[in-house]
Amino acid sequence: MHSSRQSAVSTSGDDAVVLMSSAYVSQITILNEGTAPGFFSIDGGSNWCRIPAGPVSITIGGRNERQQRDPLTIHVKRVAGGTDMSGLYAFGW
What we know:
By secondary structure, this protein is mainly beta. It is built from one helix and eight strands, in the order ββββββαββ.
């Protein structure tokens, strides 16, 4: 299993931050324990998916063996001009 760490990640402004990096995994779970919604990306910021305000978890699976050979980096960002996100965690296996 690969984890973001024991300390929560938070955003500070509109720029994206790394939630978890260099993960060779087939599935990931992203947790938002904070009260602000935002977005996450698993492709370097080309595509963004919504994370509702927490507490909530999102699990993404289905990375095949070829995809697992490429490290996965998860980015998160708040809604533009919105409240900073806090209480963000991720883990993969």
